[in-house]
Amino acid sequence: MAVMLAATTACEDVDDDGDIFNVQPDGDMIDPDAPGVDEVSSIPLTRYTARMETPALQQGNIFIEHSTFERDDSLVNYMLEYSTEHYLPRWVAFRFDARNRATVANRKSYDIKPQFPADPDLGSKGLSSDAPFKGFQHGHLCASNDRRNSREANDQTFYMSNVMPQSGNFNGIQWVYFESFVQTLGRSESFADTLYVVKGGTLDNIRQNITVDGHTVPVPQYFWMALLRVKGSNYAALGFWVEHRDNYVELTATEISPMILEHCVTINQLETLTGINFFPNLPDDIERTVEANFTAAAWGL
Q: For residue 132, is the peptide bond before it cis, meaning its omega torsion is within 30 degrees of 0?
C-alpha cells in the first residue's frame, strides 16, 4: 500500500535510506513500496526535496534516491529524476562534502557483469542490465570517479538509470574535462565546504532516437552541468552547456581552462535552455544573485 508524503520547502536535509517516489500533479510524491495502510502521512520529504542539490520536480516522472550505509549512518549517494517517457534520467544530483570526498575505492572492474545493472528500484519501468545503446556508450552522469568514497557508492553509479547515450569521442574526451574539473574542485576543502552538482542531457533537443529494449530513447544534442559552491557564508553558481559531437580532440593542459570557460553559462541561462529550476531551496535573495551571474576567477577559470 502506498503512503503519500507531502513535500516541503525547508532548506535543511536529513539523510535516510534509499527510496523511489512517483511525482504527482500537486507536487507531492507517492512511495509505492512504503509500508502502512491507506492513509495520508504528514511526514515531510525534507530528506529529499529540501536538499540543496535537488531541482524542482516534473509531474509524471519518478524520483529515486540511492544511499549507502557508512560509519553507522545512511549517506545519500545521489538522486535522480527518471523520465518514464524517455527511459532516461531528466537529471542526476549529488554533492561533494567532507563525508564523500575520499578516493579509497577504485572504479568497478570491467570484468564484472552486468557492468551496468538495471536500477533495482525501477523494475520494469527501467532499462534492462547492460541494455545496448546502439553504437553509443553508457555515459555516466554521476561519474564513477565522482563516487570513490566506498565500494558500494562507486558500484551504484553504474545503474542504468544513471547513464545516457554518449558517443565514444564525447564520453572519452570532452565530457571527461568537465568531470575532472568538477572532481578537483569538489575534493578541495579550501575551495568549498560543499559543492552541489546537477548533471543531465537534453531530452527534447536530440541528435537522434535509438531503440533500446523496444523503447524509443533519445540521444541528447547537449549535455550540461549546474554547480553551486558554498564556502562559509559565500555562495557561487555556474553552469556548463556542451554540444554532444563526435569530433572533439585532446587538449594540452593549458588549453583546458579556456575551453571550459567557453562553455560556461549562468544558472538562469541554463534554466532557460533546459526548462529545469535549479537550486530552488536557496533563500530567494541568494538564488537571485548567484543564478544571474558567475565570476570566472571564483572557479579558477
A: no
